[in-house]
Amino acid sequence: MSAHDHDHSHARQGRSLVVSILLNLGFAVAELVFGLMANSLTLVANSIHDASDAVALTLSYFGFRLSERAPNSRRTFGYRKVRILTAFLNAGVLVALSVLVIRSAILRIVKPEPVQSPTLIFIAVVGLVVNGVAVLLLRRDRESLVIRAAMWHLLDDFLGFIAVLVGGVVIRLTGWYVIDPILSIMVSGMVIWGAWSVFRDSASILIDSTPHDVSFDTVRKFIVDFAPEITGVHDLHIWTIGEGERALMAHLKVRDSQVSSFQPMLSKLESALRDNFGLNHVTLELEGDVCKSGDNVCLG
Question: What angle do CA 290, 291, 295 make, to 5 degrees?
Fold first, then answer.
């Protein structure tokens, strides 16, 4: 991807987040008004949920903007992980909210409350359109963890409105009020499943784990077997700096020779690591047959 395409993608992601924030916040206000008019606790609760989603999306937007700031002497890698941290927090909030929804739904199964089904059906249809548009706006950039977390917030609402629509129709035809909390539990379970993947992936990046699609042992063997000059490797670390940027650091054990004689090999190795494993920030240090870094490093 060229720098121009990258900048264009970033600008599009920013615009999509802003539109999604406005749609979510505006609809939260509408749900609250209609919920009070219809005496519907479900819609009032949904308005609170949508408002919290708007706050989470706003945090995503500011995290997105902050991540674009240039590196400095204190934060030499820049603010790339801010986006990952935002995705981590958003996913955690979403799981917590879904658990609260499940708790409320269980209470309503025990003691169902009547609702005005026509209002439920109307709000559900409008909500499906609004959230569907927001999800489609973000779908183009779903490779981003921040965008994925934002999408799950919106998809949570989208699936929720499907449940509201089905529940409204069933209540209208049968008067069976308990269908609403039952569907809410099913939707919340699906949302927790999706949000958990974002939570897990972002947490893994934040603690500098080896990327899940890169085999540590395979990379180690690849380096050792790359050239006859390399007799061993230690202090090998592979981690993710930010979205689209992966780093590798290692000490290479080589036979004694002038440092300049290894430059062609190092250049080829760096290119091979980038092409084969997507490692685009490589730092390699040469050492002689005797490791100088101490036992805790030399044994690693």
Answer: 130
Compute the distance between CA of residue 139 and CA of residue 135 in angstroms, rounded to an integer.
6
> Which residue numbers in the chain have pLDDT < 70?
1-14, 16, 39-42, 44-45, 48-49, 52, 56, 59-60, 63-64, 67-68, 140-146, 149, 153, 243-244, 258-259, 289-300
Instruction: State which residues form the domain around 160.
Output: 3-206
For the chain, give the number of residues: 300
Q: 170 and 111 in one domain?
A: yes
Q: Which residue in 299, 178, 183 sits closest to 236, CA to CA?
A: 299
pTM: 0.67
Which tens digits make up the pLDDT trace of 158-208? 777 887 788 788 888 988 888 877 877 777 777 788 778 878 888 888 888
* Residues 50 and 168 reside in one and the same domain: yes
208 sits in the region (left: phi over 0; alpha: psi -120 to 50; else beta) called: left
Edge-to-edge strand ranges of the sheet holding 245-254: 230-242, 245-254, 281-287
List helix spans (H) across 214-279: 216-224, 263-277
Q: Does residue 195 share a domain with residue 140?
A: yes
Report the domain count for the chain.
2
CA distances in angstroms from 243 to 13, 80, 88, 270, 284, listed in the order given: 14, 7, 13, 20, 22
* Amino acid symbol at 217: D
Residues 233 and 173 in one domain: no
Letter string b/e over residues 274-299, b meaning 16 or more CB atoms within 10 A of that residue's CB: eeebebebbebeebeeebeeeeeebe
CB 203 within 8 A of CB 92: no
